[in-house]
Design goal:
The chain is mainly α. The chain is 81% helix and 0% strand.
């Protein structure tokens, strides 16, 4: 319609949106079950669930913006797909690990590391694409 097709970014954004609905639903259900309307009421599980939701909303926008810009700049789709798969997998691992288990755990740790790596690689590629074409 607009002359710019971004299938990889579109799919990654859609999967991220679905994940956001799931983690938001988990927050809402926990609030309803425990009758906590505002804040956390000192409930540590609710605090974790809220941070999973917040963490996703903090990292998803910049990642999707970077993927979109890379796709517009014509970066190889295999690279874009790889970054997208790693990002969605990392966010799933983080949501599962942090949202279900208190303290340190592999899902939370590796989910964050993988998210940061995706952002670092995408940022480097974006700088390269913008400056060197």
């Amino acid at each position: 319609m607009f002359g710019i097709e971004m299938p990889v970014t579109t799919v990654v954004a859609a999967l991220t949106g679905l994940l956001l609905v799931v983690v938001s639903y988990r927050v809402a259900i926990h609030r309803l079950k425990n009758r906590i309307e505002i804040g956390t009421g000192g409930d540590t599980q609710l605090e974790r669930l809220i941070r999973v939701q917040g963490n996703l909303t903090e990292y998803a926008p910049i990642t999707l913006i970077l993927l979109g810009l890379l796709e517009i700049h014509g970066v190889d789709q295999t690279i874009l797909i790889s970054l997208g798969v790693v990002f969605v997998g990392a966010r799933l691992a983080h949501a599962h690990g942090f949202g279900t288990k208190p303290g340190k755990n592999p899902g939370r740790f590796y989910g964050m590391i993988a998210t940061w790596l995706v952002i670092l690689v995408a940022s480097g590629l974006a700088i390269h694409s913008a400056l060197l074409g």
